[in-house]
Specification:
Number of strands: 17
Strand order of the largest sheet: 5-4-1-6-7-8-11-10-9
Strand content: 15-25%
Family: In the C-terminal section; belongs to the trehalose phosphatase family. Belongs to the glycosyltransferase 20 family.
GO molecular function: alpha,alpha-trehalose-phosphate synthase (UDP-forming) activity; trehalose-phosphatase activity
Organism: Maribacter vaceletii
Bound molecules: adenosine-5'-diphosphate, 6-O-phosphono-alpha-D-glucopyranose
GO cellular component, one term: cytosol
Protein name: Trehalose 6-phosphate synthase /trehalose 6-phosphatase
Length: 483
């Protein structure tokens, strides 16, 4: 086998052109942070969009851009503004994303979006064929590129192709509403192995394949005539060591070397030692349940007023997909909710919510993780949610409480967390109280199990298991064909 080619819409770095030249910043999101660790540790080429549209790329900078990307072992697919509108902001994020997260009311079925999605997927497939050798392993990622596996297989029937979906796969009843449902399934079936975060997503996919394409499904094998496509679940892990080492290093920093944010957090601990910090970190996305979380916080403070001035909610929301109307509306809603709650409940000594709407460098993310007594993550639907895992990995002394939505893929593996239904405010209020008052001994007992599991099933093991299953599948298919 040759090298591994990773393909995703977004590269692990995003380029911007500033006065000083080309600037590369790390991409945010579970796919990018998870796969980056794999990419950095091995010999792979990553193909994707650079963050700059054709219109934002001056001709004379093209070579410099390619060189900047080569440094990260990346190669770009050029996309115009129009393509981004139809394929990315359109079909990917106004059709598939809301539908696969069960937001039917936000889902738009637009023929133009679909046409753009098809042609951009073809562009990615062509870029892969051009940049790879026959014996390379091709690993396609996520919902933006579901047609790519079939497009490659058509041109290169012996290509070894894996596909991993980083978001939920919805139930058949939801999936079947898409006008182009058969094409999407057939696109995916170009792969030899299709991976999901959880068994439920896998089951939903198999059910759609059986009912919409009428294919023979035996356990988790799909017989498509000349070969068998394997489907399996691989819950994605994190780079446990990276987060743990970063937390150890941060804890060891002399006060004068700490970041401004860390100093502020330290001051907070000293001036209000009894006040618990509750942390939430998400991309600003309606699937993350940020608005509901703020309302649930208000409900909690009204139900248990004795916790006023004793808790503070820190919300870090990273700007995301701001050209999509639903994201703009959500931003407005959150601004208003935070403003109203702080306006109504703040005292001279206390602001209930600290709200940051920005991306933060890795070191500040660690500052927040290590300084927070509780992480409160309430997605209404989430493929995995790596933030939950990262929080636990950084708890060096094993204290800290994770409150996690049962609608997140990670909840399946994190039973020792306090699991909640984000729509149930009453239960969340009780859970917050439980978290605030949980004895350290219990916190440590719960986190010990969580950390062991995260350390063992880290992102490297995740990728290895996927790759091993892919190679096994190729061998099985060779045996299948020669029968
Ligand atoms: P999603 O993939 O839907 O965004 P996840 O929780 O799975 O959700 O992944 C989010 C990833 O983005 C995490 O790995 C987290 O460390 C990273 N991240 C979140 N917020 C920031 C931020 N402000 N700056 C940099 N990285 C961030
Ligand atoms: C989720 C998706 C990724 C995506 C990321 C950030 O993690 O699964 O495919 O890259 O969100 O979203 P964006 O649209 O900014 O790439």
């Amino acid at each position: 086998m040759g090298k591994t080619i990773i393909i995703s819409n977004r590269l692990p770095v995003q380029l911007q052109i500033s006065e000083g030249g080309i600037v590369a910043t790390p991409s945010v999101g579970g796919l990018a942070t998870g796969m980056k660790s794999i990419h950095n540790s091995g010999e792979s080429l990553w193909i994707g969009w650079s963050g700059l549209t054709d219109e934002e790329t001056p001709e004379e900078l093209n070579d410099a851009i390619n060189i900047a990307l080569e440094k990260h072992n990346c190669s770009k697919v050029n996309l115009s503004q129009e393509e981004m509108e139809g394929y990315y902001f359109g079909f990917s994020n106004r059709t598939i994303w809301p539908l696969f997260h069960y937001f039917m009311e936000y889902t738009e079925f637009e023929l133009d979006f679909w046409e753009s999605y098809k042609s951009v997927n073809q562009k990615f497939a062509d870029a892969i064929l051009e940049n790879s050798d026959e014996d390379d392993i091709i690993w396609v990622h996520d919902y933006q590129l579901m047609l790519v596996p079939q497009m490659i297989k058509e041109k290169r029937p012996n290509a070894v192709i894996g596909f991993f979906l980083h978001i939920p796969f919805p139930s058949y009843e939801i999936f079947r509403t898409i006008p182009w449902r058969e094409e999407l399934l057939s696109g995916l079936l170009g792969a030899d192995l299709i991976g999901f975060h959880t068994y439920d997503y896998e089951r939903h996919f198999l059910s759609s394949v059986r009912r919409l394409l009428g294919l023979e499904v035996s356990f988790n094998d799909i017989n498509i005539g000349n070969r068998v496509v394997k489907v399996d679940s691989f819950p994605m892990g994190i780079d446990y060591k990276k987060f743990r080492d970063a937390a150890i290093a941060h804890n060891a920093l002399a006060p004068e070397n700490r970041s401004v944010l860390q100093k502020r957090l330290d001051d907070h601990k000293i001036s209000a030692p009894d006040t618990k910090l509750i942390l939430s970190i998400d991309r600003l996305d309606y699937s993350k349940g940020i608005a509901k979380r703020i309302s649930a916080f208000e409900y909690f403070l009204n139900k248990y007023p004795e916790y006023k001035e004793k808790v503070r909610l820190v919300i870090l929301a990273v700007p995301s997909r701001s050209n999509v109307p639903q994201y703009q509306l959500l931003k407005k809603e959150i601004d208003e909710l935070v403003g109203r709650l702080n306006g109504e409940l703040s005292t001279v000594n206390w602001t209930p919510i600290w709200y940051f709407y920005r991306s933060m460098p890795f070191k500040n993310l660690i500052d927040l993780y290590i300084s927070s007594d509780i992480a409160w993550l309430t997605p209404l639907r989430d493929g995995m949610n790596l933030v939950a895992k990262e929080y636990i990995a950084t708890r060096i002394d094993k204290t800290g409480v994770l409150i996690l939505s049962e609608m997140a893929g990670s909840a399946y593996e994190m039973n020792e967390a306090l699991l909640i239904n984000p729509n149930n405010f009453e239960h969340q209020a009780e859970t917050l109280k439980k978290a605030i008052t949980m004895p350290k001994k219990e916190q440590m007992a719960r986190n010990m199990f969580l950390q062991k599991r995260l350390e063992r099933y880290n992102v490297e093991v995740w990728a290895q298991e996927f790759m091993t299953a892919l190679k096994n599948q190729i061998e099985n298919n060779e045996a299948f064909v020669s029968k």
